[in-house]
Amino acid sequence: MDFREDVHDEVRPSLGSLQSYFAKCYGTSRWRTLRAALEAPAQKVAWLNLRAEPPKASLPSTVKLIVHKSGSAFLMCSNGSDGSAELPAPSPCQLCSDFYPGGSTQKVTSHYLLDGASILPALALDPLPGEQVLDMCAAPGGKSLILAGQLFRQDAAHATPNSASQAAAPPRRTSLLVSNDKTAARRGRLKRVLQEYLGPSMVSDHGPVIVSSVDATESRVSPTWPMHFDKILVDAPCSSERHIIHGAPGASWSASRLKRDAQVQQLLLRSAVRRLKPAGGKLVYSTCSIAPIENDGVIAKLLAHERYGIGLTVQDPLAELRHPSFRPLVLGAQPPRCEPLARVGPSFAEAP
């Protein structure tokens, strides 16, 4: 099987090794199907920013609106194309009056374009208003935007001060989102994205959205984080075979890199487990790799650990994604590798 003609010359030497490795992992027939899917254009979707005033222009007939049960709304194409041409370009909008009834001069961006599979881990985490949530490897910020949209979706209902309904309602626990990235350049982009879409007042050192710079592979995670999070997303750095197959300059692949990636992923997961709520916490682990060693292998090693695996159980990774419109994303060209873990037993501190 030949690779694409536009593959960069410096990438070609590693493609033969990649092909041999995955043909051995999956068998020639299955690998042929997977490779064709990886070579195909990624399905694009648009996350709609519900903090922005809705656009007045009508959508093309080929674009459909999908509303998830969490309230998150997305645009995707219904004509079988990847959506790169049909989806409108993001634009600045006024802050929605539902969130700011007194009016505001701030503007936020209408929607965020991202690969379709990227929305699935954030939807699988399913954060609820009032929870404390960590996006451990958050840059460039698309998944954090989806999480923020879910966490703060009831803000509009509480936007009008001194209302009778607000006075009668029980006090809510404050929602918190910590979006983390250890790399300065990526973290700078992450912060700009969050401010651009949520508004500068939402992003600060005190919340409700915090951008942190923790190296989560270290055994001692920053004391600036809360002691425990209700929900944690670990969208781990990985080998990303799609980028290599598409011949991105500077991309390379080797079996030894898979092992190094898996070691880093294991450290990230252990840090996440240490910070996961002792009972009822939920952790979603995801990658954009199809390598078993970076996915099921990492989870199996965590669950088998005499300390970190205690009290964890694996949930159905697609339980939150059963929407007919998401079927092309779940079963299509870029299926997510996504493993939700629930903590139902002792906390890490209680483990022997």
From TrEMBL:
Record domain SAM-dependent MTase RsmB/NOP-type: where: 38-352
Keyword RNA-binding: yes
Entry binding sites for S-adenosyl-L-methionine: C137, A138, A139, P140, G141, G142, K143, D181, D215, D235
Gene Ontology molecular function: RNA binding; RNA methyltransferase activity
Biological process annotations from GO: RNA methylation
Entry annotation: catalytic residues: C288 (nucleophile)
InterPro entries assigned to the protein according to its UniProt record, in alphabetical order: MeTrfase_RsmB-F_NOP2_cat, MeTrfase_RsmB-F_NOP2_dom, RCMT, SAM-dependent_MTases_sf
Keyword vocabulary terms for this entry: Methyltransferase, RNA-binding, S-adenosyl-L-methionine, Transferase
Family the UniProt entry places it in: Belongs to the class I-like SAM-binding methyltransferase superfamily. RsmB/NOP family.
Stated name of the protein: SAM-dependent MTase RsmB/NOP-type domain-containing protein
Organism: Chrysotila carterae (Marine alga)
